[in-house]
Design a protein that fits this description.
Structural class: mainly beta
Helix content: 10-25%
Mean pLDDT: 88
Order of helices and strands: HEEEEEEEEE
Shape: globular
Largest sheet: 5 strands, antiparallel
Number of helices: 1
Distance between the termini: 16 Å
Length: 116
């Protein structure tokens, strides 16, 4: 949740798009969130220009991390107004137990935990 709030506030502060995507390596987005995620700002006028703001590797082998967004590259993007371009969920699931934690992101840009 902290990183979602950070990404949303950076989009507003920078007056630009800020995205969160699964990580392929330390500079490349992936639709797969298993390895972690990165947060980047993106120039609205020049979308190919990206600045990486944070990288979060997912080191826990006993859990899976899934990002599910209705975007062709499975990316969550916040607009300069703080809104999410698409709604979606982030799911953290234990491989050893039935524990699952779900974060829902609405189009308003608000993120909330679902009750387990």
């Amino acid at each position: 949740l902290h990183h979602l709030h950070y990404a949303r506030s950076e989009a507003i502060k920078r007056n630009t798009l800020v995205g969160i995507c699964g990580i392929e390596d330390e500079k490349t987005c992936s639709s797969n969130w298993e390895g972690g995620y990165l947060i980047f700002s993106q120039d609205i006028q020049n979308p190919s220009h990206k600045e990486i703001l944070k990288i979060h590797a997912h080191p826990y082998r006993h859990t899976t991390l899934l990002g599910q967004f209705n975007h062709r590259n499975n990316i969550l993007q916040f607009t300069p107004e703080g809104r999410a371009q698409k709604n979606g969920t982030i799911i953290l699931r234990s491989k050893n137990t039935d524990f699952t934690q779900t974060i829902v992101i609405s189009l308003s840009g608000r993120a909330r935990l679902l009750n387990a």
